[in-house]
Each structure stands twice: as structure tokens, then as C-alpha cells.
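User: If only I could read C-alpha cells as easily as an amino acid sequence. Underneath my words sits a plain record pairing an amino acid chain with its C-alpha cells. This is the protein in question:
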Amino acid sequence: MRRRAFQFSIVLALVFVCAGYAQQNQSRGDGEIHILPVQGNIYMLIGGGANITVSTGMDGTMLVDTGSAAMTDKVLGAVKQLAVMVSGTPWPASPCVGIRCPNGAGGGAFNQFGWTSPAINTLISSPRPVKPIRFIINTSIDADHIGGNGPIARSGVTFTGGNVARGPGGSGDKAEIWAHETVLNRMTEGKVAEAAWPSDTYYTPTYKWNGFFNGEGIQLYYAPAAHSDGDTMVYFRYSDVISAGEVLSMTSYPSIDVAKGGSVQGEIDALNKILEIAIPQFRSQGGTYIIPGHGRLADEGDVANYRNMVVKIRDRIDNLIKSDMTLQQIKAAKPTLDYDGRFGSPDAFIEAVYRSLTKKR
């Protein structure tokens, strides 16, 4: 029995060491932007601050968030590289996009067996002009999500019909920036540079994008009181990918900004919304992929585990509050101990949960 206890203690120690090392590895960066193909039309840019979601194809490029200001030039370089690779390649135009197309992504309804004329082959083998950045969607007001708004929007184009331009300033010479109206309100109140402001906002619980973009429908979901009071989650319906923003982080406990309207219950509600939308391929794995605000790509199983962690810690802290314990006493009780090896320092999270639970009392 003593030998088994000793062996178990060694294994437990190794688990905590590995968890700590993994946590450090998740936070490391080399100062470069890395491109991860996710699924369908969707790619994930890593290293620009918060994770950036990119849809690129026949209609142009859409970004969900723009990263930090310091990484803007590298983000633009990565977006251009991706657009050239995806939409500037020498295959014929096709209405089909994504991995389910004949002959793979971009194969579409036309392939090499349908074109035999040398003149036609010469024409279609010429690289096509790359479509511009057309839309930016902000998931929150955080600096690592909106830092590149101004210059990245200026590098894009708003396509218009007739003589009317809907872009910033009415000129059509910039990409449209979308966000929930609360984000625009907080930007104006916080005196954020006007170039970073959303040019278009929505205010409803959900917003269906007006028409298909790159061959798929897109739906915005408003999370009214999760990380803040202006969070947006973006669902790419054909590619089956959800961009979750700060609602989900694979490297840390949730960031709940109570001063800006965030709450632990709103965080749980937002995570439950992701679980409501997502469909796994096998058990809880694969299927719908979720791009978090920070950290690695996730699926429904990861979100369920994260949601369960938040619920457990909320209930523990709620019970301690009912025992008339102060914030410092609750921190000393270590209600997050079994998760600290995975998610790091819990102090800010415990304080946010405490404040959001006592705020309603």
C-alpha cells in the first residue's frame, strides 16, 4: 500500500508539472503570425494578440477581430498571403467552396477534365486578382481584439450598388466594421480613435448576415453579460465554425469584466449557447469547431468541460458567500485549486465571480 501511495504521489506530481509546462507553452509566442486551416472556408490566425478568424474566398475576406495594434502589419501580411493562396490560385471560378466540394476545397463544379481547349486552359491558369478585405466583426472592445481596426479597415473596400456607399464616411474606400451597438457606445465614451469605431452595428439577440458570404450563411449571437455587455459570437454555418471571442479561452479562466457589464451567469449562458449550436461528429469530439479568444482550437467537448468548470467554481464561491466569508477569505479557501494547474492564477476570476454574485444581492 505504501509503495502504491508513493507511486501515485509521483504520478500526481508529474501531472502538475506537465500541466504547468503546458500552460507556459500555451502562452509562448515567437512574434510571428501563424495560419491554421480550421474547416471549410475558415482559417485561424494565431499570434496577433487575440485569435483572429478569417473567411476568404470568391467574395473577398472577412475578419473576426483584428488583433493588437503592434501586430497589424504582420496580420495584414498573413491575410494577404492567405487570400493569394485561396482565391488567387489558377483554378476556374466555381460556386462551390469548402472541403465538401468535388476534388476538394475550391474544386467546385469544374475540373481539369472539363477543359480541353489550349486557349481556355491558358486563360484559367493565370492567377486571378485577389479580392479585398470587405468586413471586420469585433467580438468585444478589448484592445487585443480591436487594435488593428483602423489600418486594416483602410486596407479594405466596401462594395456598393448604384451611387450609394455604406462604408465609413460614405466613400466605400474602407472595409465595414461590425459590432454590437454596445461596443460602439463604449468606444465613443472611452474616446477610442474614431478610425476604430464600428461603421455598422446590430442590437438584436441574433443577427443573420445579409446574404451569403463566400458561399455560406453567417449568424451573429449577442452575449449580453458574459465577458462584458458587448460580446458577439460569430457562427459560420456552412463551414460549421464558431468564433467565440473572449467568451472562451483555452489558456486561462474566463475574463469577466464586471465594470463593463460582465457576469459569471452571463458567461455560463454564453457557453451554453455555444453548446446549443455545436454538433459533434463523434460523441463530444470533432464536428463543429470553436475558435476561442485565446489558445488552441476547441470542439464541443472542450466547451462542455470549460462550462462545467465555471459552474462548479461559481457554486463553490456562492456557498462560501452564503457562509459570510469575505473575498480574501474565499481566496484563501482556494475554491479553484483543482483547476489552477490547467488555467493558471485564479485571483482575477475569483474576484469577478464574487463581485458578480454579490452585486445582485
